[in-house]
Amino acid sequence: MSSQSQHSDLDSSALGTHISSTPAAPMDPPSTSSTISESDENPCTSSSPSSAPPPVHLPLSWPPDATLSLQWIHHLTAAFDWSSKNLPPSQFPSVLPVSVFDTLILTASKILHKEPNCLRILEDSVASTDSTVVVVGDIHGQFHDLLFLLQDAGFPSENRFFVFNGDYVDRGAWGLETFLLLLAWKVFMPHRVFLLRGNHESKYCTSVYGFEKEVLTKYGDKGKHVYRKCLGCFEGLPLASIIAGCVYTAHGGLFRSVSVPSSKRSKGKKNRRISLNPEANGLSLGSLEELSKARRSVLDPPWEGLNLIPGDVLWSDPSMNPGLSPNRERGIGLLWGPDCTEEFLKKFGLKLIIRSHEGPDAREKRSGLAGMDQGYTIDHVVDSGKLITLFSAPDYPQFQATEERYKNKGAYIVLEPPNLDVPIIHSFEAITPRPKHWRKISRGGAKLPCNSREVELINPSGGNKESVS
């Protein structure tokens, strides 16, 4: 772990501990079997501007034997890092041709679509005795901060698992590089790297908050094709994970039961058109079995009807008020209180929930909940365990002038045996200075002030969504 990042064990005696860290230049990767040797290119280079030649041969090509290697991933990382500092976005195809993109995303999509809605990680008691798990929150296209995180935590390996909680794209200038690098790791180590879906991995969010514009800028006349392929891959991302039988992770969090009372059932089309009105029917927590049966392959999670679980998992937020209630401010998903956290943990034998979804902008208007200045908050402490919100994009958001950003730290969580339910939280500073070419990509769609909370309202009559401050 570098001096730019420090950590704290969060046991029952350290629930209020915040992490202080001192900015420093990135250090060499930890000494593990998966890090780069001195003879290889270090993908985690400084973000200072450079006129150096490409560190690898460009354009990149798919391996002749169609098998990704660690070296290929290092080359991909180094190429993305170099191009972000030396090339305008429109020259991205000279780094990663569309043909290579197509092969990578097709290969990754096949793997992702075969995975269950809720991944079971480290179920084997033997494997869980010598393996660690790194959990990562929102990244939002902050590619260079992701590189530091991978270096600081140690790259994925046989004994180091990674679970990413979604929101890889939007708001930052390098969402495409971020997502593609993680897909490459997924293809290389499909049983060690796990990518969950965030609410921004959707057609609506990417069309409003920057990713679509980024892709069109980088791939030009092939941009629409690349964007469609990314949307198709988003549909295959799993919704949640359970680690070692005791830790639940998801982007937004908990979800409702969608079982339809027998009195509401009918035959034929009428049954398919039932709309679950939460105020009319009441709300109760959903089960892991219901989660496993939800239909996740949708471009935008529905906000009404029978397939509400994906929207809940991606959009819901914790609250200090007891019970379940509609998330009126977002217009989709739920708010759940500490009593619901306790019920969920106890019912399914869990001890910890790690969710993401809220950055410093979202938290500054949330009554009773802590701010996100350290990259994490402990939202609920109940008899059966804890609920933590994790945010991994420091100095957020990238698309604002320096004086308008939140200057928050990012964080990631390490779960180590024998106490995999005791989170070790690492907080880290943003990599600076940032490359300059990101200024060439402006956010498409709605123009929101930097301190506006990402909120969506849904028009019940027309079914349309609009972003509001």
From TrEMBL:
Region feature Disordered, mapped onto this chain: 1-58
SUPFAM superfamilies: Metallo-dependent phosphatases
Cofactor: Mn(2+)
Gene3D superfamilies, per the entry: 3.60.21.10
Keywords assigned by UniProt, alphabetized: Hydrolase, Manganese, Metal-binding
Ranges of Polar residues composition bias in the record: 14-23
Bias (Low complexity) ranges: 1-13
Catalytic activity: O-phospho-L-threonyl-[protein] + H2O = L-threonyl-[protein] + phosphate
InterPro entries: Calcineurin-like_PHP, Metallo-depent_PP-like, MPP_PP7, PPP_phosphatase, Ser/Thr-sp_prot-phosphatase
Recorded superkingdom: Eukaryota
Enzyme class: hydrolase
GO MF annotation list: metal ion binding; protein serine/threonine phosphatase activity
EC number: 3.1.3.16
Ranges for domain Serine/threonine specific protein phosphatases: 196-201
Family stated for the protein in its record: Belongs to the PPP phosphatase family.
Protein's UniProt name: Serine/threonine-protein phosphatase
Organism expressing this protein natively: Momordica charantia
